[in-house]
Amino acid sequence: MNRNLIGKIQMKGKIKCLTGLHIGAAKENIEIGAIDASVVRDPVTREPYIPGSSLKGKLRALLEKSLSIKLGIIGTENRINIGTKTNPVYIHVCTDADKAYKCPICRIFGSTGQGGGKNYPSRLIVRDAYLTTESVEELSQIDTGLQFTEWKFENAIDRVTSAANPRQLERVPRGAEFEFEFIYNVEDKETVLEDLESITLAIELLKLDSLGGHGSRGYGKIQINFEDIKCFSLEYLKSGQGEVKSITDLSKKEELLSVFK
């Protein structure tokens, strides 16, 4: 199917950690007394960050759960395993581009299809979210023996033998803030409002859920605040001529469409 681009919507804001945040990184080596699970960091600055893939994946998962009954995707059809055979992770995927266009999940987050050019690239781009300047300065002052982060000591107890299994996890402390950016590609005026409503729903669900690992044990509660939402027409992006609409609240998303009239 042919896809057009008539504009872009840029959404910026901040994510604030209301509890400690753990988004894990691959363990490089094993040392006695070392952290059992470290957080993902920028390789240059060593600052912890929120990968766009983690944030986007969580938003998609929550939206899938909220719409699964409506879409009839609870069964095994129209889903693929992005995990392994022993640890499967299933996501909903429409089998071709025409179905993906009609699907509120695949239209926003994309679909791999079933090969043969039937994929449907995502309309939504989610950037990596990095610490604000203020948070970098604040976290650099804490004395935990770690850089920008804290230790969290936990102890798992075997329910049968009562044997203890102590472990040490690294997490970003409560109060840290990250700057995020979403880019939504506007391809038609007919579906943009529905897509923005779905994105809003996913964000509201995330506020009442958790980001990263160990959410059931208190990690990953976050607050998401939009600070600047701009809609650019293709005409403006090409020549600098035309209207740019700016809002600060997605509840006023209808105002963005004035750019395309």
UniProtKB/TrEMBL annotation:
InterPro entries: CRISPR-assoc_RAMP_Csm3 (IPR013412), CRISPR_Csm3_endoribonuclease (IPR052216), RAMP_III_fam (IPR005537). Pfam families: RAMPs. GO terms for biological process: defense response to virus. Keywords: Antiviral defense, Endonuclease, Hydrolase, Nuclease, RNA-binding. It comes from the Bacteria. Residues 14-222 form the CRISPR type III-associated protein domain. Transmembrane segments: none annotated. GO terms for molecular function: endonuclease activity; hydrolase activity; RNA binding. Belongs to the CRISPR-associated Csm3 family. This is CRISPR system Cms endoribonuclease Csm3. The gene is csm3_1.
